Amino acid sequence: xVLLDISIQDRVIIGISAMVLLFSSFLIAFVTNQxxxxxxxxxxxxxxxxxxxxxxxxxxxxEEKVNERTSELMHQKNNLQNALSDLEKSxxxxxxxxxxxxxxxxxSGVAHExxxxxxxxxxxxxVTSEMLIEMKERLASEKLPDSLKNDIDPxxxxxxxxxxxxxxxxxxxxxxxxxxxxxxxxRSGEMEPTDINSLIEEYQKLSYQSFKAANKHYECTxxxxxxxxxxxINIVPQDIGSLVLNLLNNAFYSTLQKKKxxxxxxxxxxxxxxxxxxxxxVIIVRDNGLGINPKFLDKIxxxxxxxxxTGEGTxxxxxxxxxxxxxxxxxLKVQSVEGEFAEFMIELNY
Length: 350
Description:
By secondary structure, the protein is α+β, with helices and mostly antiparallel strands. It is 67% helix and 13% strand. The chain has 2 domains: 17-186, no CATH class; 192-349, Histidine kinase-like ATPase, C-terminal domain (Heat Shock Protein 90), CATH 3.30.565.10.
């Protein structure tokens, strides 16, 4: 019995040992397998990370290329837009020149045709006026009955007044014709580098002295603010000077009319400023006169349109000035509040 029991015990131990050995083998195989799986996943993750980094690099390079190409396309687009804009401006200028040339030829022809009979009217009215004076002197030296003199004198006075009216309106028509010829003639001035500030000072003095000569009691405060850093600009000095002169004359006229209305409570003031705005030279003429009625603002550049009373303006100054600025590829702008001020801005490209 003892031998049998030992044998069973050994068998149990051997069985347990075998089971332990089998479990250990299984455990080792399991751990080894898990390690392989872990290494595989780590390797797979590393590969995925490398692929992701490579993909990010490729995305960055692609984005840089796209941005670079987009920048090139935008640059080309801007160049094309600028070229198109320049072409459109050139076309508009060409059309404007052709229109003005055609209008100029027509206006010049009409003006010359009017000029001849107008000269006869003016000349013969002056001769007739002199003859009436001689007739009055002759009648005064003759001994005529008072009743006859009383009949003749009023008739002669009426004839003299009529002749004076013919002369006045004839000279006004002559002035209009001369302005038409000036408006229609081709500008022959050459562009040259010009000191804008010196030009403004010269024409400001000329305008004020001329206006005071015609209106002796007129006084005006003139304020000038000229940019000392203004560069010389290619313009036709006579043309731009003529425009500035016209703007100043209009400013003085407007302030004079307001002075007549306001009296001593009002002081005429005209300011002139020059400045540089990027690639533009800017000239501003501003007055505190009567201003411009808003309904007239879109008409002031039309030939023969004027807000001045009959006989005091031809309506060609601003029209001529507008064409001068357009010929310089610039802009003439206006701002105004009726009864308070009027401001004209000339913008000229460098």
